[in-house]
Amino acid sequence: MGDYSLNPYIGCSFNCEYCYINGSKYVESTDSFYIKSNALQMFKNQLKRKAKASERAVILFGSATDPYMNIEKELLLTRNLLNVANRFKFPVHIVTKSDLVLRDIEIFKKININGVLPKDLTFLDSKVMITFSFSSLDNEIAKIFEPNAPSPKKRLKAIKILKDEGFLVGASLMPLLPFISDSDEDIDKIFSVLNKIGVDYIFGGPLTLFGESNNDSKIKYYKIIDKNFPNISEATKQIFKEKEYPNINYQKNVYKKLGKACNKYKIKNSII
Ligand code: SF4
């Protein structure tokens, strides 16, 4: 959820093997990334204008990159941008795989006090929403597909802390990995763990694979599958064939399983 999206970086050093931005319009490859060095000034100018016009909106951090990749530890770009959001009283929604987000709890607390929600969202309990992204909760599987990102274990710990601080916190199971983390049992297990730590919502979806060159997500993903999971290699390629999305039956099935788990655990499948 977000009225505007803000990506402080282009590309992402977490370099997940399935990352859809490889081969998409967003970036040539996640092997390198760029820093938007004028982001702070531009953001200040834009929010100042919007605040002056009494416009209220939720700013989504991280639709096409992770705002808490490792370089953020030194650069503090996301942190400084959050301070600007607070200064102009804009609520934020953060999407991340990193527990580095905990570093900015004090700013989130300020946004929760100062932020002004858009009229249609005033019923929300928090002006800060934080969504953690997972493709699996299994640390070993995550090491294969998300080698540079903080482990699922660290992300779960961070969820607990942020929930205890009173923020709206949920999980994005996007993408669920075909034949690896998408069975009824896999999804049930993931929901059970997330439910226990009290997430407010869980949404998910199937894998998307763009492109045809070596750095594109489809080729990268198939290479990893061939190497580590040869027994599901053919089945994976069959559901995609030449398309970027798995076939419609597969997609329907995934959403059905997610719906079933949401009902079982009485968890919302969206923030609102
Ligand atoms: S964390 Fe997200 S944006 Fe970054 S490489 Fe992984 S999937 Fe792509």
From TrEMBL:
InterPro entries for the chain: Elp3/MiaA/NifB-like_rSAM (IPR006638), MJ0683-like (IPR040086), rSAM (IPR007197), rSAM_sf (IPR058240)
Gene3D superfamilies: 3.80.30.30
Keywords, comma-separated and alphabetical: Iron, Iron-sulfur, Metal-binding
Protein name, entry field: Elp3/MiaA/NifB-like radical SAM core domain-containing protein
Domain Elp3/MiaA/NifB-like radical SAM core: 2-227
Native organism: bioreactor metagenome
UniProt xrefs under Pfam families: Radical_SAM
Molecular-function GO term, any one: iron-sulfur cluster binding
